[in-house]
Amino acid sequence: MTTSRQIKKLDEAVINRIAAGEIIRRPSNALKELLENSLDAGATNIQILIKDGGLKLLQIQDNGHGIRKEDMAIVCERFTTSKIETFEDLSCISTYGFRGEALASITHVAHVTITTKTADSNCAYRAHYADSKLVPPKPGVSAEPKPCAGNTGTLITAEDLFYNAPTRREALKNTSEEYKRILDVVNRYAIYNAGQGSNIADVSTLANASTLDNIRQIYGSSTASELLELKKDVEGLDLKVKGYVSNANYNVKKIVFLLFINHRAVESLALKKTIESVYATFLPKGTHPFIYIGLEMKPQNIDVNVHTTKREVRFLYEDEIIAAIGDVIHERLAGADTSRSFLTQT
Ligand code: ADP
Ligand code: MG
């Protein structure tokens, strides 16, 4: 027989670490948050450095607006954000972040250093963080942000991810798998944000490149040369569809599905299924297309207030919107087919 045990409140540090582990499950989650912060800061150039699949080091440098020195003491605290002020602001949000949880979470599971400079400051400042607070870089010195040289923008490093969560670390020991996931996040944003340069060991896009240039750079010219452009305003649904999808001559073993809704990389299993069924009539059995789609819809129609790691989105008029996108792609594929048979007849 078991006896009833006394109920105790968990230690603050334990609560924080558990909460952080929900938001940052693996290195690619942390990288996505950092990358989105850089984009929110208006960065046009982003450099990324990864060691051991991000477990040893995640480093991201941007040329965005930087963080003011006065804000450096609280920037890594939970629920501190410069992006919204009221609950109502949520309905018209245009930034990636808004909950002010990402940096805080990362400091609970990694050693974080921020070096940042705003345009109107004479110098950059560097500070170290643990458990959402400023900490001295070594014992006996001040934890206050220290002036240093630097360009306008922000450099953030997160070292030894999950150093304090040995079971999580053990579960992530396949560093090449983690690196692949990071690359996937970077690839998606590189394509969507064509025109801005970005750089990670294996992905490097040029500042003036087009979307198609970036697809060619990342997925190869055999993919880029078989794409049909999508561009359509769907009346009545307040929906703008743009993107590139592969034609009926192209197929791969596994679908490549890059989806953005209002500039955010997301997943939608329902949309993926519909697109696969459209292609089923055009492609050989067991083969799949390349799909890159960016959707823009009224922010009011999307539920953004979901858990940070939930990439799967929910939106209003989902069935109608998904059917409409299926139709747009079907029309494009069928149209491309006609022009081909027309060519062979002449
Ligand atoms: P959120 O993005 O939800 O606001 P974060 O924890 O990701 O929360 O970031 C907290 C705040 O730190 C942001 O609101 C922003 O003001 C600032 N910040 C974070 N990263 C950057 C960056 N790369 N450049 C400028 N400011 C940043
Ligand atoms: Mg953020």
UniProtKB/TrEMBL annotation:
Protein known as: 7645_t:CDS:1
Parent-protein start and end of this portion: 1 to 346 of 720
Similarity field: Belongs to the DNA mismatch repair MutL/HexB family.
Annotated localization: Nucleus
Residue span(s) of domain DNA mismatch repair protein S5: 215-334
